[in-house]
């Protein structure tokens, strides 16, 4: 922590299946497959997390196909769970 000072949070070190290759605060986080990962290899080459604070913008992009997943606002739960196109792909934890 002393070595990096205020930049400590941006000096990520880990041993997981992905490695962070890009981080633009309040915009995007890009992860790529870690070729040196010791366990089961990821089934995708990478993940791009786009940070979209406006729920309506995120939903519009999801519905247009530019996003693969979103956190579904509770105000839209009924609409998505009663529409055939969406209810087949919904999942929750």
Describe the structure.
The protein is α+β, with helices and mostly antiparallel strands and 93 residues long. It folds into two domains: 1-51, 3-Layer(aba) Sandwich (D-Maltodextrin-Binding Protein, domain 2); 53-93, no CATH class. The protein is 20% helix and 19% strand. It is built from three helices and three strands; from the N terminus they run βββααα. Strands 1-2-3 form a three-stranded antiparallel β-sheet, with no helix packed on it. The longest helix has 10 residues, at 55-64. It is extended.
Present the secondary structure layout:
Elements: E1 18-24, E2 28-33, E3 46-50, H1 55-64, H2 77-81, H3 84-87
Antiparallel strand pairs: 1-2, 2-3
Global geometry: extended
**Record field, number of beta strands:** 3
Radius of gyration: 17 Å
Name the structural class. alpha+beta
Number of domains: 2
User: The biggest beta sheet, please?
Assistant: 3 strands, antiparallel
Strand adjacency order, main sheet: 1-2-3
Q: Runs with pLDDT <50, length 5+?
A: none
- Can you tell me the CATH topology of the largest domain? D-Maltodextrin-Binding Protein, domain 2
InterPro entries: SBP_5, SBP_5_dom
GO molecular function, one term: peptide transmembrane transporter activity
Pfam family, one: SBP_bac_5
Keywords: Signal, Transport
């Amino acid at each position: 922590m002393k070595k990096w000072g205020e930049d400590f949070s941006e000096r990520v070190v880990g041993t997981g299946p992905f490695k962070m290759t890009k981080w633009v605060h309040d915009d995007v986080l890009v992860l790529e497959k870690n070729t040196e990962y010791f366990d089961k290899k990821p089934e995708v080459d990478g993940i791009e997390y786009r940070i979209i604070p406006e729920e309506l913008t995120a939903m519009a992009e999801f519905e247009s196909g530019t996003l693969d997943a979103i956190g579904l606002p509770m105000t839209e739960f009924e609409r998505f769970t009663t529409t055939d196109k969406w209810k087949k792909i919904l999942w929750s934890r």
